[in-house]
Automatic annotation (TrEMBL):
InterPro entries in the record: Cyt_c_oxidase_su3-like_sf, Cyt_c_oxidase_su3_a-hlx
One annotated GO molecular function: cytochrome-c oxidase activity
Protein's organism: Egibacter rhizosphaerae
Domain of life per record: Bacteria
Keywords: Membrane, Transmembrane, Transmembrane helix
Gene Ontology BP, a term: respiratory electron transport chain
Membrane-crossing residue ranges in chain numbering: 12-35, 55-73, 85-104, 124-147, 159-182
Any one of the GO CC terms: membrane
Keyword Transmembrane helix attributed: yes
Protein name as annotated: DUF420 domain-containing protein
Keyword GTP-binding among UniProt keywords: no
Length: 194
């Protein structure tokens, strides 16, 4: 099979549509957080400590590893290697599981009450929604890793896998962007926090 993915496949358009909607949502949230930071006396407010960068850096590091594994898997799709695709899907699923666990650990360790101020709300919305999307993509990778790829289904499953990889790219790049807004803006752009 020389042609792996037809751009007009409905699943491809579904992935691109989902990425477009999710990206617009996350960009809106990011700009709202930056806008609120510019108008605040302190960002984060005095009652909300600036989060330590350790766990978020681990999340971004896991996201980078996920991105590299997804790129390697995408290359296997192009080389028509279905057996290795299942292994690649399993590796990406494990990396996404690590990322989700670290992300939730970061969110819960802070003890932020999302009802107290805009910074805590922005943190919860950014990290929480991204973890939900990452978990959904993790499930898709796990299903594709565990499923038997019968010869007559291989083209359809490859198309599904490419769509899943597109969403994986969004998740990996989105984590870096979300954490940049949540950690770099308060430290370097709006005066270094409270």
């Amino acid at each position: 099979m020389s042609r792996v993915v037809a751009v007009r496949e409905p699943i491809w358009w579904g992935a691109v549509g989902a990425i477009t909607v999710l990206s617009s949502m996350h960009v809106t949230i990011a700009f709202a957080a930056i806008y609120l930071a510019q108008g605040a006396e302190a960002w984060p407010p005095a009652e909300t400590p600036l989060p330590a960068p350790g766990l978020p850096l681990a999340v971004v590091g896991a996201g980078v590893l996920t991105l590299l594994a997804a790129v390697a898997a995408h290359r296997r799709v192009a080389r028509d290697q279905p057996g290795r695709l299942q292994a690649a899907a399993a590796v990406v699923a494990v990396l996404l599981a690590i990322s989700v666990a670290l992300s939730l650990g970061d969110l819960l360790s802070l003890g932020y009450d999302h009802t107290v101020n805009a910074f805590a709300s922005a943190y919860w919305v950014n990290v929480g929604l991204h973890a939900i999307v990452a978990f959904a993509v993790l499930v898709a990778h796990a299903v594709l890793a565990l499923r038997h790829w019968a010869p007559e289904e291989q083209l359809r499953l490859r198309n599904a896998y490419v769509a899943t990889l597109l969403l994986t790219y969004y998740v990996a790049v989105g984590w870096g962007t979300a954490y940049a807004v949540l950690h770099l803006v308060p430290r370097y752009w709006v005066g270094g926090g409270a």
